[in-house]
């Protein structure tokens, strides 16, 4: 029998027991629905999480002094940062490159004093995709040039210092030569990030003024941050930007700069994979039960088919085609069931802020959006479809083997 004819017979065989087939298709569709939405939640949330972490620090790929990661001091800098920016911006996967200066700072007023972490940046080079603090501005204004006056603080830090807009704050930090320096600036902006640790310890400075205070050259920075359109390409970009050994710089990916965040994501992804495997096993078990029962009910029929000239290979192929039909139709039904919820969750999402209450919306010092949205990577979707089809075919192997090994003399006697 030709393959097309065999496929047609296999399709008709599935619908001999419509209720059983529909239940099996429902389990496949529901399993695919769960796998797609669960994976899409992870893909979207972790991609957004990584992008947020990149905007808070060194980007998706960081060009910095080779020893800065182990000993982050203001003496370990990169020179000719404008050349490094051009080098990074020339990569096909880099969307934007900026230079920044970061370090520790002590802030004091007549009321109190607190330690903080400062980020000095060039407003002319940044945009909403590289620095999102402007979205959380609650008072004052963000910097417009690299030599602006004033200082921008996190909301809780400003409140702890008892600062009002325009009031003076004295800052103290260590310059490039290791000398303690002090200065005075007026509060020009207050930002609210929603991340408690940032709101209580973040200070923003214009990079030109910071270079002058720290004794840096006009083209010297702590690092150059490269921002990508897709964070998954970070390792490839880092390899291209730091492929050769350089004594004055090294290219690091976001997970090397933030290992605690990378560990958290790896743990969650691993847990997600385990759940997907469990779902695949449950779906495969349901398919196996359907096919096995169907084959055992038709053993007399298989014996007669062998007696009239069908080969064991054809019977084996017949059952495997039934299994393949189940997988393909199940995937199609699952797609139809999933489209509506996926579209809603990807465009609108679900606001979970009410459920979180006063719990801090941060992990490893990075804030996350309390609105749950989904967005699946194409390769993740292909992996799910392939897993469903493989599980379906694997579940049909033993029933197909039993069908192909039917003995006419024994099975024809069955009633």
Question: Could you characterize the architecture of this molecule?
Answer:
This protein has 415 residues and is an alpha+beta fold. It has two domains: 200 residues, no CATH class; 183 residues, no CATH class. The strands form three sheets. The chain has a six-stranded mixed barrel. Strand 2 and strand 3 form a beta hairpin. The radius of gyration is 31 Å and the shape is elongated.
> Quick one: biggest sheet?
6 strands, mixed, barrel
Give start-end ranges of low-pLDDT stretches: none
Count the helices. How many?
14
Shape label: elongated
Q: What is the total domain count?
A: 2
Distance between the termini: 26 Å
The fraction of residues in strands falls at 15-25%
Structural class, please? Answer: alpha+beta
Helix share bin: 40-55%
Helix and strand run = HHEHEEEEHEEHEHEHEHHHHEHEEEHH
Strands ordered across the widest β-sheet: 2-3-8-5-7-6
Q: Over all CA atoms, what is the radius of gyration?
A: 31 Å
Let me know the number of strands: 14
**Rounded average pLDDT:** 84
């Amino acid at each position: 029998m030709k393959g097309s004819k065999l496929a047609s017979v296999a399709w008709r065989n599935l619908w001999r027991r419509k209720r059983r087939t529909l239940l099996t298709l429902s389990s496949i569709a529901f399993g695919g629905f769960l796998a797609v939405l669960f994976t899409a939640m992870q893909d979207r949330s972790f991609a957004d999480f990584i992008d947020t972490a990149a905007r808070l620090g060194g980007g998706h790929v960081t060009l910095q002094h080779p020893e800065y990661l182990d000993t982050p001091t203001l003496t370990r800098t990169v020179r000719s940062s404008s050349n490094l920016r051009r080098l990074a911006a020339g990569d096909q996967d880099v969307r934007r490159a900026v230079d920044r200066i970061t370090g520790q700072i002590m802030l004091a007023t007549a009321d109190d004093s607190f330690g903080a972490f400062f980020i000095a940046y060039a407003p002319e080079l940044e945009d909403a995709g590289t620095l999102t603090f402007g979205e959380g501005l609650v008072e004052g204004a963000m910097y417009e040039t690299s030599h602006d006056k004033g200082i921008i603080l996190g909301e809780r830090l400003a409140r702890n210092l008892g600062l009002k807009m325009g009031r003076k704050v004295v800052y103290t930090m260590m310059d490039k030569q290791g000398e303690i320096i002090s200065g005075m600036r007026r509060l020009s902006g207050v930002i609210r990030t929603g991340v408690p640790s940032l709101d209580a310890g973040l200070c923003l400075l214009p990079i030109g003024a910071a270079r002058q205070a720290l004794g840096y050259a006009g083209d010297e920075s702590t690092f150059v941050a490269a921002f990508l359109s897709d964070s998954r390409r970070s390792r490839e970009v880092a390899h291209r930007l730091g492929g050769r050994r350089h004594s004055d710089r090294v290219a690091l990916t976001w997970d090397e700069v933030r290992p605690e965040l990378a560990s958290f994501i790896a743990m969650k992804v691993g847990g997600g994979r385990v759940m997907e495997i469990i779902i695949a096993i449950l779906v495969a078990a349901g398919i196996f039960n359907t096919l096995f029962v169907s084959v055992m009910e038709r053993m007399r029929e298989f014996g007669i088919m062998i007696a009239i000239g069908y080969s064991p290979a054809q019977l084996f192929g017949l059952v495997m085609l039934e299994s393949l039909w189940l997988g393909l139709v199940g995937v199609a039904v699952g797609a139809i069931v999933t489209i509506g919820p996926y579209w809603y969750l990807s465009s609108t999402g679900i606001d979970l802020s009410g459920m979180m209450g006063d719990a801090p919306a941060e992990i490893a010092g990075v804030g996350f959006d309390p609105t749950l949205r989904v967005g699946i990577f194409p390769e993740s979707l292909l992996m799910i479809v392939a897993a469903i089809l493989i599980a379906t075919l694997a579940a049909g192997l033993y029933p197909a083997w039993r069908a192909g090994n039917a003995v006419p003399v024994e099975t024809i006697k069955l009633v």
